[in-house]
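Reproducibility note. Readers wishing to regenerate the assembly model reported in the main text can use the exact inputs given here. Chain order matters: entities are listed in the order in which they were concatenated for prediction.
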Amino acid sequence: MADNPDRKILELFRQNGQKEAAFNLLADAYSERLYWHIRRIVIDHEDADDALQNTLLKVWKNLENFRAESGLFTWLFRIATNESLSLIKDRKKHLHNSEDQGYENSLAETLATDPWFDGDEVQLKLQQAILSLPEKQRLVFNLKYFEEMKYEDMSETLQTSVGALKASYHHAVKKIEKHLTGE
Amino acid sequence: MNPKKNIPNIIPPKPENPFRVPEGYFDDVQKRVMERIRSEEQEQLEKTGRQVTGTDRIIPPAEGGNQESEKAPHREVPRGRKIYLQPYLTLAAAISGVALVVYIVLQSVTGIGAGDDNTYDIATLDRAGVFQDESILAEAYTETGEDEDAVYSEWDEEAITYLASNEVDLIHLLDNN
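Running the prediction on these inputs yields the following structure tokens for the assembly.
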């Protein structure tokens, strides 16, 4: 059962001298999944690495206070999402770009030559279309389309109503469609 | 239209992951994060000035470096201002007490104490709680700015009556504040 490994991690974390062992178990179980979620948001590998490390650091500092009101992975996912959005905000600040999508535009432009992007032309266009979406819509689209997350789970993670998420996804799809058809 | 996802067929079916990572990236993520955690915790220890004892963890050496043992030389940590000043406060209190007793005795016997200009020394005022009370009044009278009138109106009658009846020199109080 999915709960057992989580419970084991939490119990181990609270035992004296076992914090590091528990953390290693957690990182082993979840870091790759978290990474890909982060990567789809921030696109760049180095940025994703930064955000993942920041996420795991926050987990280390706060796991003992985790109350298990939500599942462990939901909690981790939420931290990773926040760290990704914070990182984007930080990058935008450093760019001093007055355009709202300036940062995303520059990412879209460099994606074709990014050594850590291996997609064909269709995939490149899709990623560039996704990058044209506002952050929150991009996030919802990624979660629904790539991670096939249920709206109810998404609602718990993003603390947004199911209705708002469905609307967001609908708008995202429309915009991507327009982008790909060149309208 | 893709009925399952309600997505127009313009958007390609979910592609294989087009993103890559350096080889072995996921193998050492944990190790790098733990190194960062230890480094931050070490910095925190040094910043707070807490004494590091042999019971603390030994930090693995950085590559090419010497092993950093947390058995650093014992550092005397200041014990805090309150404890540090205690002997002086005790001494001051003792001297004040003795002076007060002497003064009271002298005053009662000889009448010495009240100056010609009707000023009282601090020890007497303090004993009677007058000094403290009147320092508040002094502050009220030295209030400046927009609230000056408001402060004056709150204190004036009571203050004037008190000051007048005790013949206390306000300037003397202000000086002592």
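We highlight two features of this model. Chain A has nine helices and no strands. Chain A has two domains: 1-96, 113-183.
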